[in-house]
Amino acid sequence: MLLKTVFLLVLVAQVLMLDNGLLRTPPMGWLAWERFRCNTNCDEDPKNCISERLFMEMADRLAQDGWRDLGYIYLNIDDCWIGGRDANGRLVPDPKRFPHGIAFLADYAHSLGLKLGIYEDIGNLTCMGYPGTTLDKVVQDAWTFAEWKVDMLKLDACFSTAKERATGYPKMAAALNVTGRPIAFSCSWPAYEGGLPPNVNYTRLAEICNLWRNYDDVQDSWGSVLSILDWFAEHQDVLQPVAGPGHWNDPDMLIIGNFGLSLDQARAQMALWTMLAAPLFMSTDLRTISAQNMDILQNPLMIKINQDPLGIQGRRIRKEKFYIEVFMRPLSNEASALVFFSRRTDMPYHYRCSLSMLNFNRSLTYEAEDVYSGDVITGLREETDFTVIINPSGVVMWYLYPIKNLEMSQ
Ligand SMILES: *[C@@H]1O[C@H](CO)[C@@H](O)[C@H](O)[C@H]1NC(C)=O
Ligand SMILES: *[C@@H]1O[C@H](CO)[C@@H](O)[C@H](O)[C@H]1NC(C)=O
Ligand SMILES: *[C@@H]1O[C@H](CO)[C@@H](O)[C@H](O)[C@H]1NC(C)=O
Ligand SMILES: *[C@@H]1O[C@H](CO)[C@@H](O)[C@H](O)[C@H]1NC(C)=O
């Protein structure tokens, strides 16, 4: 009887999730906005303006520089691509900046083993003032995106009312489904409702969207990264349980490789976003990124943790008075990821800790691999004291697993 009940509950839970089969792990790729914004000045800045040239050059980099093979497959357009609507009301891209059209760009991405994402807005206008997808245009625009062979839609919500959003997001989810094309659906809806219940119903959202922006846009600064992290950690009791395969919280893009972060801060954003089971959308110039920043973004163990098949979001489990925090994310095969994070501004801090302090309570022997240095720390039992040395605004990240399990799998 108990078994039967559990089985039924599982079935019900599955039926209630958005059922397009997409994004069983957080999406990875590249998104134009944070780095390239609404630069439409192709006359003076042809290399960096929002244009098919920019997306094709990023596609080439994704395919040729190892990104695609590590999972960074989405090439995503943001605002400022639209030229208007034609006589039939159909969206058309800016003819000067996208002379070959979006279907051409999608074909190009697909020919390189990538996927193409596009952007619209469930309001009168997009955030930058281009034609929006008003409620009467939802079905037509869904068909247009499907015909272009687009693979993801980010639907923003500037210039819309709460009522339009409550109608528009479910309507778009249904319209995308009717096209028959699998199109991952990224919703900015919760960010426009304050990101929290009762204004946001996350159960409902998971039935409609594959990922959602909960909070403010990331900007190119450490302060911005910290403010986003703080909001997600502060509200983790609400946010942590609602993430899972096919439906993710999105704390916004990775700004690694740009101008606002030190090397330690870049490592910290990558580690902390991975703990949040966040989508990994880079927004940086892949044509000029440094080897050091590439190493951070292409760390194979980091990506394995981000893409863990259980898809359980991590939590902040310690917040010390002396500005050290610890995050923990449970992973498959009884492994976990730990991030020791310093918000200090003085010098590398020697943080004394033990697994029992981190709520580990099974009498197993563990081994930890330092995700950035590759060092292996072995013979850890719950009562073993250890010290990690954490740089100011930096992290130490561990992949931790019971040794017994390791022996079994070898
Ligand atoms: C549409 O929804 C149905 C039922 O939820 C699902 O089985 C199907 O895979 C969906 N199709 C697409 C293209 O999302
Ligand atoms: C959208 O445009 C309509 C028609 O011009 C206007 O009545 C409405 O107030 C606008 N909505 C928003 C949220 O700006
Ligand atoms: C949230 O949405 C779910 C699924 O649609 C629904 O069952 C539930 O009643 C909603 N909760 C609230 C508080 O409205
Ligand atoms: C061990 O830790 C888990 C997870 O933190 C907790 O649910 C469980 O109650 C703990 N068991 C004991 C015996 O303390």
From TrEMBL:
EC number of the protein: 3.2.1.-
Top enzyme category: hydrolase
GO cellular component terms given for this protein: lysosome; membrane
Domain Alpha galactosidase A C-terminal, first and last residues per copy: 311-394
Signal sequence annotation: 1-17
Matching Gene3D superfamilies: Aldolase class I, Golgi alpha-mannosidase II
Any GO MF annotation of the entry: alpha-galactosidase activity
InterPro entries membership: Aldolase_TIM, GH, Glyco_hydro_27, Glyco_hydro_27/36_CS, Glyco_hydro_b, Melibiase/NAGA_C
The reaction(s) this protein catalyses: a neolactoside IV(3)-alpha-GalNAc,IV(2)-alpha-Fuc-nLc4Cer(d18:0) + H2O = a neolactoside IV(2)-alpha-Fuc-nLc4Cer(d18:0) + N-acetyl-alpha-D-galactosamine; Cleavage of non-reducing alpha-(1->3)-N-acetylgalactosamine residues from human blood group A and AB mucin glycoproteins, Forssman hapten and blood group A lacto series glycolipids; a neolactoside IV(3)-alpha-GalNAc,IV(2)-alpha-Fuc-nLc4Cer(d18:1(4E)) + H2O = a neolactoside IV(2)-alpha-Fuc-nLc4Cer(d18:1(4E)) + N-acetyl-alpha-D-galactosamine; a globoside IV3GalNAc-Gb4Cer + H2O = N-acetyl-alpha-D-galactosamine + a globoside Gb4Cer
UniProt keyword terms in alphabetical order: Disulfide bond, Glycoprotein, Glycosidase, Hydrolase, Lipid metabolism, Lysosome, Signal
CDD domains per record: GH27 (cd14792)
Pfam families: Melibiase_2 (PF16499), Melibiase_2_C (PF17450)
Compartments where found: Lysosome
Superkingdom per UniProt: Eukaryota
Family the entry assigns: Belongs to the glycosyl hydrolase 27 family.
Subunit annotation: Homodimer.
PANTHER family per UniProt: ALPHA-GALACTOSIDASE/ALPHA-N-ACETYLGALACTOSAMINIDASE, ALPHA-N-ACETYLGALACTOSAMINIDASE
Function: Removes terminal alpha-N-acetylgalactosamine residues from glycolipids and glycopeptides. Required for the breakdown of glycolipids.
This protein's name: Alpha-galactosidase
Organism of derivation: Microcebus murinus
Gene that encodes the chain: NAGA
